[in-house]
Amino acid sequence: MNSIKAEVIGVGTELLLGQISNTNAQWLSSKLANEGISVYYHQVVGDNPERMYDALKLAKSRSDLVIITGGLGPTEDDITRNVLAEVAESSLELNEQALLAIKAYFTRSDREMSDNNIKQAELIKGAKVIPNEAGTAPGMIVNANATTFISLPGVPREMKSMFIERVIPYLRSAFSSNAVILSKMIRFIGIGESQLEEQVKSLIDAQTNPTIAPLATSGEVALRITAKASNRDEADRMIAKTEKEIEALVGDYIYGVNDQQLNQSVVDLLTDRKQTLAVAESLTGGRFSDEIVSVPGASQAFIGSVVSYSNEAKTKMLHIDSKKLEKEGAVSEYTALEMAKQVKEKLGATYGISFTGVAGPASIDQREIGTVYIAVYQSGDNYLVRSYQFPKDRDSIRDRATKKGLELLYYYLKNRD
Fold first, then answer.
1. Rounded to an integer, what distance in angstroms lies between the CA atom of residue 303 and that of residue 292?
2. CATH number for the domain formed by residue range(s) 180-257
Protein backbone atom coordinates (compact mmCIF):
# COMPACT_ATOMS: atom_id res chain seq x y z
CA MET A 1 0.00 0.00 0.00
CA ASN A 2 2.93 2.37 0.45
CA SER A 3 2.89 3.44 -3.22
CA ILE A 4 -0.78 4.48 -3.25
CA LYS A 5 -1.63 8.16 -3.56
CA ALA A 6 -4.86 8.90 -1.75
CA GLU A 7 -7.13 11.93 -1.76
CA VAL A 8 -10.05 12.91 0.48
CA ILE A 9 -12.89 15.08 -0.84
CA GLY A 10 -15.56 16.60 1.39
CA VAL A 11 -18.81 17.49 -0.37
CA GLY A 12 -21.22 20.12 0.91
CA THR A 13 -21.72 23.86 0.66
CA GLU A 14 -22.12 23.94 4.45
CA LEU A 15 -18.43 23.02 4.73
CA LEU A 16 -17.40 25.96 2.58
CA LEU A 17 -19.61 28.34 4.55
CA GLY A 18 -18.03 27.20 7.80
CA GLN A 19 -21.36 26.04 9.20
CA ILE A 20 -19.83 22.69 10.11
CA SER A 21 -16.21 21.53 10.46
CA ASN A 22 -14.72 19.02 8.04
CA THR A 23 -13.73 16.55 10.75
CA ASN A 24 -14.22 13.64 8.35
CA ALA A 25 -11.05 14.51 6.42
CA GLN A 26 -8.88 14.52 9.52
CA TRP A 27 -10.33 11.23 10.75
CA LEU A 28 -9.98 9.51 7.37
CA SER A 29 -6.39 10.67 6.91
CA SER A 30 -5.48 9.17 10.28
CA LYS A 31 -7.15 5.85 9.49
CA LEU A 32 -5.61 5.65 6.02
CA ALA A 33 -2.16 6.33 7.47
CA ASN A 34 -2.63 3.41 9.84
CA GLU A 35 -3.18 1.24 6.77
CA GLY A 36 0.01 2.49 5.13
CA ILE A 37 -1.81 4.75 2.66
CA SER A 38 -0.43 8.26 2.22
CA VAL A 39 -2.99 11.04 1.75
CA TYR A 40 -1.56 13.58 -0.69
CA TYR A 41 -4.53 15.92 -1.12
CA HIS A 42 -7.66 17.25 0.59
CA GLN A 43 -10.44 18.99 -1.32
CA VAL A 44 -13.75 20.55 -0.25
CA VAL A 45 -16.38 21.29 -2.89
CA GLY A 46 -19.90 22.65 -2.65
CA ASP A 47 -23.15 21.22 -4.04
CA ASN A 48 -22.48 22.49 -7.54
CA PRO A 49 -22.32 19.95 -10.41
CA GLU A 50 -19.75 21.78 -12.53
CA ARG A 51 -17.34 22.44 -9.67
CA MET A 52 -17.83 18.94 -8.27
CA TYR A 53 -17.12 17.45 -11.69
CA ASP A 54 -13.89 19.46 -11.91
CA ALA A 55 -12.86 18.36 -8.42
CA LEU A 56 -13.46 14.67 -9.14
CA LYS A 57 -11.74 14.87 -12.54
CA LEU A 58 -8.71 16.48 -10.91
CA ALA A 59 -8.64 13.75 -8.27
CA LYS A 60 -8.89 11.08 -10.95
CA SER A 61 -5.93 12.57 -12.80
CA ARG A 62 -3.56 12.47 -9.82
CA SER A 63 -4.74 9.94 -7.20
CA ASP A 64 -5.03 6.17 -7.03
CA LEU A 65 -7.65 6.21 -4.27
CA VAL A 66 -10.27 8.90 -3.69
CA ILE A 67 -12.54 8.91 -0.63
CA ILE A 68 -15.62 11.14 -1.03
CA THR A 69 -17.83 12.05 1.93
CA GLY A 70 -21.23 13.71 1.59
CA GLY A 71 -23.81 14.37 -1.10
CA LEU A 72 -25.61 11.02 -0.85
CA GLY A 73 -28.83 12.26 0.73
CA PRO A 74 -32.33 12.23 -0.79
CA THR A 75 -32.65 15.92 -1.66
CA GLU A 76 -32.03 17.76 -4.93
CA ASP A 77 -28.68 19.17 -3.83
CA ASP A 78 -27.30 15.68 -3.12
CA ILE A 79 -25.57 15.14 -6.45
CA THR A 80 -22.48 13.07 -5.66
CA ARG A 81 -23.91 9.92 -7.31
CA ASN A 82 -24.74 11.71 -10.55
CA VAL A 83 -21.43 13.54 -10.87
CA LEU A 84 -19.36 10.49 -9.91
CA ALA A 85 -21.20 8.42 -12.53
CA GLU A 86 -20.29 11.03 -15.15
CA VAL A 87 -16.63 11.07 -14.11
CA ALA A 88 -16.55 7.26 -14.14
CA GLU A 89 -18.20 7.30 -17.59
CA SER A 90 -21.06 5.20 -16.32
CA SER A 91 -24.72 5.68 -15.36
CA LEU A 92 -27.08 5.14 -12.44
CA GLU A 93 -29.45 2.24 -11.97
CA LEU A 94 -31.87 1.30 -9.23
CA ASN A 95 -30.21 -1.21 -6.93
CA GLU A 96 -32.98 -3.41 -5.53
CA GLN A 97 -30.84 -4.73 -2.67
CA ALA A 98 -30.01 -1.20 -1.58
CA LEU A 99 -33.70 -0.21 -1.83
CA LEU A 100 -34.73 -3.11 0.41
CA ALA A 101 -32.11 -2.05 2.97
CA ILE A 102 -33.46 1.53 2.98
CA LYS A 103 -37.02 0.31 3.44
CA ALA A 104 -35.89 -1.96 6.27
CA TYR A 105 -34.21 0.99 7.97
CA PHE A 106 -37.44 3.00 7.96
CA THR A 107 -39.36 0.00 9.25
CA ARG A 108 -36.91 -0.43 12.14
CA SER A 109 -37.14 3.28 12.90
CA ASP A 110 -40.96 3.18 12.79
CA ARG A 111 -40.94 6.03 10.25
CA GLU A 112 -42.65 6.51 6.94
CA MET A 113 -40.37 6.43 3.92
CA SER A 114 -40.64 9.34 1.48
CA ASP A 115 -40.53 8.83 -2.26
CA ASN A 116 -37.32 10.85 -2.57
CA ASN A 117 -35.49 8.26 -0.45
CA ILE A 118 -35.71 5.93 -3.45
CA LYS A 119 -33.10 8.18 -5.03
CA GLN A 120 -30.57 6.89 -2.50
CA ALA A 121 -30.86 3.41 -4.01
CA GLU A 122 -29.85 4.67 -7.46
CA LEU A 123 -26.23 3.57 -7.65
CA ILE A 124 -23.56 3.48 -10.33
CA LYS A 125 -23.64 0.42 -12.57
CA GLY A 126 -21.08 -2.15 -11.51
CA ALA A 127 -20.32 -0.41 -8.21
CA LYS A 128 -19.66 -2.43 -5.08
CA VAL A 129 -22.33 -1.45 -2.55
CA ILE A 130 -21.29 -0.48 0.98
CA PRO A 131 -24.25 -1.14 3.31
CA ASN A 132 -25.20 1.58 5.77
CA GLU A 133 -26.68 0.04 8.90
CA ALA A 134 -26.75 3.35 10.76
CA GLY A 135 -28.60 5.39 8.12
CA THR A 136 -30.31 5.37 4.72
CA ALA A 137 -27.55 6.25 2.24
CA PRO A 138 -25.48 3.29 1.02
CA GLY A 139 -21.91 3.89 -0.06
CA MET A 140 -20.18 2.78 -3.26
CA ILE A 141 -16.81 1.56 -4.45
CA VAL A 142 -16.32 2.52 -8.09
CA ASN A 143 -13.32 1.61 -10.20
CA ALA A 144 -12.73 4.22 -12.90
CA ASN A 145 -9.71 3.16 -14.96
CA ALA A 146 -6.70 3.48 -12.64
CA THR A 147 -8.56 5.28 -9.84
CA THR A 148 -10.74 3.75 -7.16
CA PHE A 149 -13.49 6.05 -5.85
CA ILE A 150 -15.11 5.27 -2.51
CA SER A 151 -18.23 7.33 -1.82
CA LEU A 152 -19.52 7.51 1.76
CA PRO A 153 -22.18 9.53 3.62
CA GLY A 154 -21.12 12.79 5.20
CA VAL A 155 -22.69 12.04 8.60
CA PRO A 156 -19.62 11.18 10.72
CA ARG A 157 -21.30 8.41 12.70
CA GLU A 158 -22.43 6.63 9.55
CA MET A 159 -19.22 7.25 7.63
CA LYS A 160 -16.95 5.97 10.41
CA SER A 161 -18.92 2.79 10.93
CA MET A 162 -18.95 1.99 7.21
CA PHE A 163 -15.27 2.77 6.79
CA ILE A 164 -14.13 0.60 9.69
CA GLU A 165 -16.44 -2.33 9.00
CA ARG A 166 -16.43 -2.38 5.20
CA VAL A 167 -13.84 -0.12 3.62
CA ILE A 168 -10.77 -1.14 5.61
CA PRO A 169 -11.26 -4.86 4.85
CA TYR A 170 -11.72 -3.95 1.16
CA LEU A 171 -8.52 -1.90 1.09
CA ARG A 172 -6.57 -4.69 2.75
CA SER A 173 -7.77 -7.22 0.19
CA ALA A 174 -7.56 -4.97 -2.86
CA PHE A 175 -4.07 -3.65 -2.26
CA SER A 176 -0.92 -5.37 -1.08
CA SER A 177 -0.26 -4.18 2.45
CA ASN A 178 3.46 -3.75 3.00
CA ALA A 179 3.62 -0.62 5.13
CA VAL A 180 2.00 1.20 8.01
CA ILE A 181 2.32 4.86 8.91
CA LEU A 182 2.09 5.73 12.60
CA SER A 183 2.34 9.09 14.35
CA LYS A 184 2.79 10.16 17.94
CA MET A 185 2.33 13.68 19.27
CA ILE A 186 4.68 14.90 22.02
CA ARG A 187 3.18 17.89 23.84
CA PHE A 188 5.17 20.71 25.47
CA ILE A 189 4.40 23.65 27.73
CA GLY A 190 6.61 26.52 28.89
CA ILE A 191 8.71 26.65 25.73
CA GLY A 192 8.03 28.58 22.53
CA GLU A 193 7.85 27.08 19.05
CA SER A 194 11.06 28.72 17.82
CA GLN A 195 12.98 27.76 20.97
CA LEU A 196 11.74 24.17 20.76
CA GLU A 197 12.69 23.91 17.10
CA GLU A 198 16.16 25.27 17.87
CA GLN A 199 16.64 22.77 20.71
CA VAL A 200 15.81 19.77 18.50
CA LYS A 201 17.32 21.20 15.30
CA SER A 202 19.94 18.47 15.10
CA LEU A 203 17.22 15.82 15.04
CA ILE A 204 15.10 17.69 12.49
CA ASP A 205 18.08 18.26 10.19
CA ALA A 206 19.00 14.57 10.30
CA GLN A 207 15.46 13.25 9.93
CA THR A 208 14.55 10.74 7.25
CA ASN A 209 12.28 8.14 8.81
CA PRO A 210 10.81 8.87 11.32
CA THR A 211 10.10 12.50 10.53
CA ILE A 212 9.68 15.25 13.13
CA ALA A 213 7.27 18.15 12.59
CA PRO A 214 6.82 21.10 15.01
CA LEU A 215 3.21 22.21 15.54
CA ALA A 216 1.92 25.26 17.42
CA THR A 217 -1.44 25.42 19.17
CA SER A 218 -3.01 27.88 21.59
CA GLY A 219 -0.47 28.54 24.33
CA GLU A 220 1.62 25.43 23.70
CA VAL A 221 3.63 23.54 21.10
CA ALA A 222 4.03 19.95 19.98
CA LEU A 223 6.27 17.69 17.95
CA ARG A 224 4.70 15.05 15.73
CA ILE A 225 6.84 11.97 15.14
CA THR A 226 5.78 9.95 12.07
CA ALA A 227 7.26 6.59 11.16
CA LYS A 228 6.71 4.42 8.11
CA ALA A 229 7.47 0.73 8.50
CA SER A 230 6.51 -2.73 7.32
CA ASN A 231 4.48 -3.40 10.47
CA ARG A 232 3.12 -1.66 13.55
CA ASP A 233 5.69 -3.08 15.97
CA GLU A 234 8.57 -1.82 13.86
CA ALA A 235 6.97 1.63 13.55
CA ASP A 236 6.42 1.75 17.34
CA ARG A 237 10.09 0.94 17.94
CA MET A 238 11.21 3.65 15.54
CA ILE A 239 8.97 6.24 17.22
CA ALA A 240 10.12 5.18 20.71
CA LYS A 241 13.78 5.65 19.75
CA THR A 242 13.14 9.15 18.40
CA GLU A 243 11.01 10.03 21.40
CA LYS A 244 13.89 9.16 23.74
CA GLU A 245 16.21 11.39 21.73
CA ILE A 246 13.72 14.26 22.04
CA GLU A 247 13.32 13.65 25.78
CA ALA A 248 17.09 13.87 26.23
CA LEU A 249 17.07 17.36 24.70
CA VAL A 250 13.81 18.94 25.94
CA GLY A 251 12.25 16.43 28.31
CA ASP A 252 11.68 19.00 31.05
CA TYR A 253 9.03 20.70 28.93
CA ILE A 254 7.01 17.58 28.03
CA TYR A 255 3.65 17.27 29.76
CA GLY A 256 1.85 14.62 27.71
CA VAL A 257 1.48 12.69 24.47
CA ASN A 258 -1.14 12.30 21.72
CA ASP A 259 -4.58 13.52 22.85
CA GLN A 260 -3.65 14.27 26.47
CA GLN A 261 -4.32 17.88 27.39
CA LEU A 262 -2.65 20.00 30.06
CA ASN A 263 -5.73 20.04 32.31
CA GLN A 264 -5.66 16.23 32.29
CA SER A 265 -1.98 16.23 33.33
CA VAL A 266 -2.71 18.61 36.21
CA VAL A 267 -5.59 16.49 37.49
CA ASP A 268 -3.48 13.33 37.11
CA LEU A 269 -0.69 14.81 39.23
CA LEU A 270 -3.12 15.81 41.97
CA THR A 271 -4.98 12.50 41.90
CA ASP A 272 -1.83 10.37 41.96
CA ARG A 273 -0.66 12.20 45.07
CA LYS A 274 -4.09 12.23 46.69
CA GLN A 275 -3.94 16.02 46.84
CA THR A 276 -6.69 18.55 46.25
CA LEU A 277 -7.20 21.96 44.67
CA ALA A 278 -9.41 24.97 45.37
CA VAL A 279 -9.75 27.92 42.98
CA ALA A 280 -10.49 31.62 43.42
CA GLU A 281 -11.26 33.46 40.20
CA SER A 282 -11.87 37.11 39.44
CA LEU A 283 -10.59 37.87 35.93
CA THR A 284 -11.27 34.39 34.53
CA GLY A 285 -14.80 34.19 35.94
CA GLY A 286 -14.87 30.40 36.25
CA ARG A 287 -12.98 29.43 33.08
CA PHE A 288 -10.13 27.78 34.99
CA SER A 289 -12.52 25.75 37.13
CA ASP A 290 -14.33 24.64 33.99
CA GLU A 291 -11.02 23.40 32.56
CA ILE A 292 -10.47 21.28 35.66
CA VAL A 293 -13.98 19.82 35.99
CA SER A 294 -14.05 18.94 32.28
CA VAL A 295 -11.52 16.18 33.06
CA PRO A 296 -13.19 12.84 33.89
CA GLY A 297 -12.45 11.95 37.50
CA ALA A 298 -11.69 15.54 38.51
CA SER A 299 -13.87 15.12 41.61
CA GLN A 300 -11.01 13.16 43.18
CA ALA A 301 -8.84 16.27 43.16
CA PHE A 302 -11.06 19.36 42.83
CA ILE A 303 -12.90 20.61 45.89
CA GLY A 304 -14.52 23.75 44.55
CA SER A 305 -14.13 27.36 43.51
CA VAL A 306 -15.15 30.89 44.39
CA VAL A 307 -15.80 33.44 41.65
CA SER A 308 -15.11 36.68 43.50
CA TYR A 309 -15.43 39.19 40.71
CA SER A 310 -16.11 42.34 42.73
CA ASN A 311 -14.16 43.72 45.67
CA GLU A 312 -17.23 43.12 47.84
CA ALA A 313 -17.16 39.44 46.93
CA LYS A 314 -13.47 39.26 47.74
CA THR A 315 -14.04 40.63 51.22
CA LYS A 316 -17.31 38.83 52.02
CA MET A 317 -16.55 35.42 50.50
CA LEU A 318 -12.78 35.22 50.92
CA HIS A 319 -12.44 37.53 53.94
CA ILE A 320 -9.70 39.61 52.36
CA ASP A 321 -8.97 42.68 54.45
CA SER A 322 -10.95 45.52 52.85
CA LYS A 323 -8.45 48.24 53.83
CA LYS A 324 -5.48 46.36 52.41
CA LEU A 325 -7.51 45.50 49.33
CA GLU A 326 -8.26 49.17 48.78
CA LYS A 327 -4.64 50.12 49.37
CA GLU A 328 -3.02 47.45 47.20
CA GLY A 329 -5.74 47.24 44.57
CA ALA A 330 -7.77 44.32 43.28
CA VAL A 331 -5.16 43.66 40.58
CA SER A 332 -2.02 43.17 42.63
CA GLU A 333 0.38 40.60 44.00
CA TYR A 334 -1.13 40.99 47.46
CA THR A 335 -4.70 40.32 46.31
CA ALA A 336 -3.74 37.34 44.16
CA LEU A 337 -1.83 35.73 47.03
CA GLU A 338 -4.60 36.39 49.54
CA MET A 339 -7.21 34.94 47.21
CA ALA A 340 -5.20 31.74 46.75
CA LYS A 341 -4.44 31.45 50.46
CA GLN A 342 -7.99 32.10 51.64
CA VAL A 343 -9.71 29.75 49.18
CA LYS A 344 -7.22 27.01 50.03
CA GLU A 345 -7.80 27.36 53.76
CA LYS A 346 -11.55 27.88 53.66
CA LEU A 347 -12.21 24.89 51.42
CA GLY A 348 -9.58 22.71 53.08
CA ALA A 349 -7.56 21.94 49.96
CA THR A 350 -3.91 21.07 49.56
CA TYR A 351 -3.41 23.97 47.14
CA GLY A 352 -5.16 27.16 46.22
CA ILE A 353 -4.81 28.98 42.90
CA SER A 354 -6.15 32.43 42.06
CA PHE A 355 -6.60 34.75 39.10
CA THR A 356 -7.00 38.51 39.10
CA GLY A 357 -6.39 41.02 36.35
CA VAL A 358 -7.69 43.59 33.89
CA ALA A 359 -9.54 42.28 30.85
CA GLY A 360 -10.94 45.64 29.79
CA PRO A 361 -12.57 47.67 28.43
CA ALA A 362 -10.92 50.10 30.88
CA SER A 363 -7.89 49.99 33.14
CA ILE A 364 -8.32 49.31 36.88
CA ASP A 365 -6.33 50.98 39.68
CA GLN A 366 -3.88 52.32 37.09
CA ARG A 367 -3.23 48.78 35.86
CA GLU A 368 -3.16 48.44 32.07
CA ILE A 369 -5.54 46.20 30.20
CA GLY A 370 -3.91 42.77 29.95
CA THR A 371 -2.26 42.89 33.38
CA VAL A 372 -2.76 39.53 35.11
CA TYR A 373 -1.67 38.08 38.46
CA ILE A 374 -1.79 34.36 39.19
CA ALA A 375 -0.91 32.85 42.56
CA VAL A 376 -0.48 29.28 43.77
CA TYR A 377 -0.50 28.75 47.53
CA GLN A 378 0.31 25.70 49.63
CA SER A 379 1.63 27.19 52.87
CA GLY A 380 3.38 30.25 54.26
CA ASP A 381 6.69 28.86 53.03
CA ASN A 382 5.46 27.37 49.77
CA TYR A 383 3.73 29.68 47.33
CA LEU A 384 4.37 31.71 44.21
CA VAL A 385 2.88 34.74 42.50
CA ARG A 386 3.48 35.65 38.87
CA SER A 387 2.47 38.70 36.87
CA TYR A 388 1.88 38.81 33.11
CA GLN A 389 1.06 41.35 30.45
CA PHE A 390 -1.10 39.86 27.70
CA PRO A 391 -2.27 41.53 24.45
CA LYS A 392 -5.30 43.78 24.85
CA ASP A 393 -8.14 41.53 23.72
CA ARG A 394 -10.70 40.66 26.39
CA ASP A 395 -11.38 37.03 25.49
CA SER A 396 -7.75 36.37 24.62
CA ILE A 397 -6.62 37.75 27.99
CA ARG A 398 -8.97 35.45 29.87
CA ASP A 399 -8.09 32.42 27.76
CA ARG A 400 -4.36 32.99 28.03
CA ALA A 401 -4.63 33.54 31.78
CA THR A 402 -6.44 30.22 32.10
CA LYS A 403 -3.81 28.42 30.03
CA LYS A 404 -0.97 30.10 31.92
CA GLY A 405 -2.58 29.05 35.20
CA LEU A 406 -2.57 25.43 34.09
CA GLU A 407 1.09 25.74 33.08
CA LEU A 408 2.04 27.42 36.36
CA LEU A 409 0.21 24.84 38.47
CA TYR A 410 1.59 21.93 36.44
CA TYR A 411 5.22 22.97 37.00
CA TYR A 412 4.57 23.88 40.64
CA LEU A 413 3.26 20.35 41.24
CA LYS A 414 5.89 18.66 39.08
CA ASN A 415 8.74 20.34 40.96
CA ARG A 416 7.46 18.80 44.17
CA ASP A 417 8.25 15.25 43.05
1. 11
2. 3.30.70.2860
